[in-house]
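Quick bug: Electron transfer flavoprotein subunit alpha output formatted oddly.
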Amino acid sequence: MSSTVVIYSEDVDYIKTGIASTKGKTIVISPREVRLGDENHVINEIDEQLIAEYIARLKPDLVLTGSSKRDKTVAGLTAGLLRVPIIPDVIELSENKAKRVVYSGMAIAELEFSYPIVITLVKKNTDIRENPDCKIIKADLSGNSKVKVVEEKHKEGGSIDLSSAQIIVSVGRGVGSKENVKYAEELANALGGAVGGSRPVTAELGWLPEDRQIGLSGTKVKPKLYIALGISGQPQHLAGIKDSKIIVAVNKDKNAPIVENADYTIIGDVIEFCKVFAQKVKGI
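Here's what came back:
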């Protein structure tokens, strides 16, 4: 087993996933104080290169990061500096074995590895309590940063825990544009649910924040009602929603893969569906 484990992420849930995935002394690196692990190194930089250089100087045997864009960038840079392998999108970690989804969600591969190594983790729901004895270290990384913070804006509405949502209205490319996401939000508000999205509209197009991504590389969900708006139904997404009690698919394409995996299907325009359904719900 590794002797020095470094966990880096801006997302506390990824940090908790990392702590739950390993044993022994853990050093958590985060931009804000979290009091998780044995040591929490609080950094004052967002420059991925500087963060990776800081991690490399700790000479870790195992580096764990989350799966956000910044996390993966730091993971890749760190692996390059340490000249060690990297395993992405690991769903389960035990000693020197890691499981990850392959073939677009159709299979799970189990890999054996040797230390040192860098691993990016898929987020899980874990109940990790703060460690009152956690040693807080303020790490000053400034000096050679290529990134200048002009303004800091916090996310509107805060973070949403999709994993515990009972009703989810989820959007895919089929909604047409970022502006049209508001119709899904209006429907979700009428139903008392939350809004999520497929990987293309979160990680690639930026129509929704990355923490709204649903699927194997995002959040696995199990709502009572999952409404998929304009989502084709790639294997990675279907694997993330398979525990939903009722799946409703709204899509213009009757041959979309999600149609075969839905309990109810509406072949039609997703925007018109949202407008009519939201109005009906509000009228009840």
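Actually, after a second look the formatting is fine. The helical segments are 12-20, 48-57, 69-82, 181-191, 199-204, 235-241, 257-260, 270-282. Closing.
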